[in-house]
Amino acid sequence: MRFSRTVLAAVVGMLVFASNAAADHDTSAPIVSYTLTGTPGTNGWFRSNVTIAWQVTEPEGLTSTSGCEIAQLVTSEGTTTNTCEATSHGGTVSSTATLKIDRTAPTVSAGSPARGPDANGWYNHPVAFAFSGTDATSGIASCSSPTYGGGDGASVAVSATCADVAGNTSAAALATLKYDATAPAVTAAPDQAPAGAWYRRPLTVGFAGTDATSGIASCTAPVRYAGPDGDAAVVKGSCADAAGNAAEAALTFKYDATAPKLGKPRVEAGDKLVRITWPGSADIASVQLLRKPGLRGAKSSVVYTGKGTSFVDRAVRDGLRYRYELVVADAAGNRSGRVVTAGPRPPLYLPAAGQAVRAPPTLAWKAVAGARFYNVQLHRNGVKVLSAWPRKATLRLRATWSYAGKKQRLVPGRYRWYVWPAEGTLERPRFGRRLGSSFFVVRGAA
User: Fold this and answer.
1) Of the residues 67, 101, 135, which one is the last residue of a structural domain?
2) Which of 56, 97, 136, 368 has the smallest CB count inside 10 Å?
């Protein structure tokens, strides 16, 4: 179909008229908005590239736009501004999107301890560390400040990170230190073993330690103990490791280097017996009594063991001399001793029973406590020939004497004599039990 030039001119005129009519009626400005797509951080920052999506609306139609791409990718770190400008018959509107982008994590410098080592380059109790960082874009917001308190090691690591304002976190940075908070193990050892449960002579206690981390630096020098006595004596010492940790060890033991005290024994010899008594004390734990000559022909014999304070030896013979060694020991085994001798004898002991004499003998007998005098009677061949009243426990016979109005002589023969203790007076005596009797023989001229 072909139109004439007249028709075409009419159509164009109508369109121009319509357009001008619409422009005359458009009074609203465009509406401009946007959305941001990216990884949000903190404090208004993004931690990734950001896509800006502009939305421009104008019901009546736009005439022009600038910078209003539908998907605008922003990659620059830092703060940038992006503007969209839209124009319609109702006016021009511009909108600016301000973006803060920081995709780069901060860097951390090596941390430093808040104080110096405790000993020899070692730390032995918790120590705080300070770390710092740098960030070229959003800046440092914070850095961790760890405190190290174990475990032990010659090269232990402390780690920390820093965060920037955008919320990026750095890789961990490490600081190393030598740390030992464990005290060494310490032992105390004597230089000798006790005698049983007790030490009876001075001992020396040495100290040694082990430490798994920093090693032993020093220990107490050996300690010599020589008293006082006691059942809970204590020697203490210590060791320190290179980090300054120290521990103590103690050796508790029983010590007694003092022999028990033993007073002088008392000996009483009687007829076929010897009685020995000795002082007791709390320090004496055992007693032993050794006799020479011994029992049944032995050179020596132990005749008593125990904890008592007396012993009566009835396995003796009159007229022999016995040596007794008394040994006492305390609980630790320390000993003290005393030696006494005794010769058992009958109550009427001089002259010995059956002894032959040629000169007038002296009669002797055991003294009786409380006796004021004694009555001694002498018989020859069954006939009394003498009655005497000595005040002491001896009587010396003479070659001649008078008895019952007759003169007597000490002629050869067998003589038996008797003794009675007496109290009271010679006029009114009170006799005790007869001590006994004995005999002797006179030979040759007396």
Assistant:
1) 101
2) 136
